[in-house]
Specification:
about 550 residues; mainly alpha; Rossmann fold; 4 domains; 3-stranded parallel beta sheet; 24 helices; elongated
Length: about 550
């Protein structure tokens, strides 16, 4: 046994397997040619970030459309930042957006899916130790005994002398220890971490092809990074090496902020003689703040958390569609040609990926969601609204369960046609927008708020219109006939039934047909904006319309 083997045995006496054993345990996947194996590998440090959903969605879609595998790996090696229960939150929120993994960690206490686990890094300790033991034998890793004070002193020296910061070359003090010296220090009880022995030089260049950004060139890594911490857990960079190799990841989709780590990852793979995955560095979703671009912030932006969109009731397919518009520049053209198609019918392409960080556009999210909700049938909308209400909106749930068919009639106003109405952006808006349809809630609104009638109209003229309409509602008529009937009432009350004529000679009339329509809207709904008033009145029914008109007249006369 040579001295490096002695050092490896001293550090890892419990490791009996070899890398060759691991290769047998995790053989190459049997997948079609071109199949992509991608992963979502979050840390359990909080909620699912919008940017994380974006990168996981891209990996998921590429895996699905190539007949590959998408898996979930929990990177829980940073125990100080771990938020208890967030692992399951991440899984559930991902599933809520339709991103369901084929393999992976399924939450504390639940059995994992897949043959390439464990899928939680804290359960993979022996894999990491096995690889590092072999690295020590090959002189690719070594124990570092530097104290925090020594490392701080090194940083200060480098800053004072304007040197590149870090633990490298002549500054990598412990890399110059002989194996015998390292053995002696360990036997003396000195604490240590394990470092990777880099053979790189910062003045050299390394080339790599990025699936989105094309051919890139970086300074070669020269940092002797920590690969195993004093607590026995691996660092992110080293775990990335082992996990993506033995899980046979073919592509890594991640934010462009990880580009700086690429030289380190490339050297790690090269040192082990392993083929590295293909990398696709996605644009980071940005936000405009006082004229400056910045990343979406967990602390500053409520839209940084995907849970915000779930709680507000944004349709998940609408939010995902927005993310796809960021991803591929040709998606919106495809959507115009396939208005009712599922977004997952669209085939993503790395070639069409946006390179620049996209500005998060909440207004665009709302417009897309409004379009998606408008294209649901009344039954689909009701089913989805009920599911949302059960979790987030007890008031809405009560209305639906009170009379589901009545709810559907409200939702179906000018819905199932070629160009449907677009009344709702989110399911969270439904209750406040439709509550006036319900008698008890209408009465509350009437008592609580002043009616927003046109200030240019006097009470007497409003009452005259309401009395005239009350005497001749025409709800048995077709929509066109009803409107003609309303025009007649308009003229009888001294208003103009033609907008062009009215605009030319306003002084000759009390108001226009638009004012008469608004009087009716406000009276029966307490709002200026409602769906088509004909259908509102039809749904309310003659008795309820009469009751409301009489209550408003009484309120005006009081």
């Amino acid at each position: 046994m040579n001295v490096l083997e002695q050092l490896a045995e001293l550090i890892f006496p419990d490791v009996t397997e070899t890398v060759a054993d691991l290769e047998k345990r995790y053989p190459a996947r049997d997948l079609p040619e071109g199949a992509i194996v991608a992963r979502f590998a979050p840390s359990p440090t909080g909620f699912l970030h919008t940017g994380s959903l974006f990168t996981s969605l891209i990996g998921y879609r590429f895996a699905k459309q190539t007949g590959g595998v998408f898996y979930f790996r929990l990177e829980d090696t940073d125990t100080k930042r771990e938020v208890k229960g967030s692992d399951l939150d991440l899984i559930n929120q991902l599933a809520a957006f339709g991103v369901v993994f084929d393999e992976g960690f399924c939450g504390e206490g639940n059995p994992e899916k897949g043959a390439y686990g464990p899928y939680r890094q804290s359960d993979r300790e022996m894999i990491y130790r096995t690889v590092i033991k072999e690295m020590v034998k090959k002189n690719l890793a070594y124990p570092c005994f530097c104290t925090s004070e020594e490392l701080s002193s090194l940083r200060q020296y480098q800053e004072a002398n304007k040197l590149n910061p870090g633990y490298y070359a002549e500054h990598a003090k412990c890399s110059h220890l002989t194996p015998e010296e390292a053995i002696e220090k360990i036997k003396n009880g000195e604490k240590y971490v394990m470092r990777f022995r880099s053979s790189g030089c910062y003045t050299n260049r390394v080339k790599v092809h990025d699936e989105i950004r094309g051919d890139l060139e970086f300074a070669e890594n020269d940092q002797h990074i920590v690969i195993l911490k004093s607590d026995g857990l691996p660092t992110y960079h080293f775990a990335h090496l082992c996990d993506d190799h033995f899980m046979h990841s073919t592509h890594i989709t991640r934010g462009e902020e990880w580009l700086a780590s690429l030289p380190t990852h490339l050297e790690l793979f090269k040192s082990m003689g392993w083929e590295h995955p293909k990398y696709a560095h996605l644009p980071v979703i940005m936000k405009l703040d006082n004229g400056n671009k910045r990343k979406l912030s967990k602390r500053k932006d409520e839209e940084a958390a995907t849970s915000y969109f779930l709680q507000e009731g944004y349709p998940v397919e609408g939010f995902l569609e927005y993310l796809i518009t960021i991803a591929n520049s040709n998606f919106e053209e495809w959507r115009l040609q396939n208005m009712n198609a599922n977004i997952f019918d669209f085939k993503l392409s790395f070639d069409k990926m946006t390179l620049d960080g996209a500005l998060f556009d909440l207004a665009k999210v709302k417009n897309i969601c409004k379009e998606r909700l408008a294209r649901l049938t009344k039954d689909e909308f009701t089913l989805r609204a009920k599911a949302y209400a059960k979790q987030y909106d007890a008031n809405l749930l009560e209305l639906i369960e009170k009379d589901e068919e009545y709810f559907k009639s409200i939702i179906n106003i000018e819905r199932e046609r070629e160009n449907p109405r677009k009344d709702y952006e989110t399911f969270g808006q439904v209750y406040p927008l439709i509550k006036f349809f319900y008698s008890d809630l209408y009465d509350e609104l009437l008592n609580e708020n002043p009616l927003p009638f046109n200030e240019n109209l006097n009470k007497e003229d409003i009452i005259q219109v309401l009395n005239a309409y009350n005497a001749n509602k025409g709800l048995e008529l077709s929509e066109e006939e009803w409107f003609n009937n309303l025009k007649q009432i308009t003229v009888e009350c001294g208003f103009c039934d033609n907008m062009k004529v009215y605009k030319k000679n306003r002084e000759a009339y009390k108001g226009s047909i638009a004012d008469v329509s608004e009087i009716l809207r406000v009276t029966v709904s307490t709002r200026k904006n409602t769906p088509n008033p004909y259908w509102v009145l039809k749904i309310l029914g003659e008795a309820e319309v009469t009751r409301r008109i009489n209550k408003v007249i009484e309120k005006l006369e009081a």
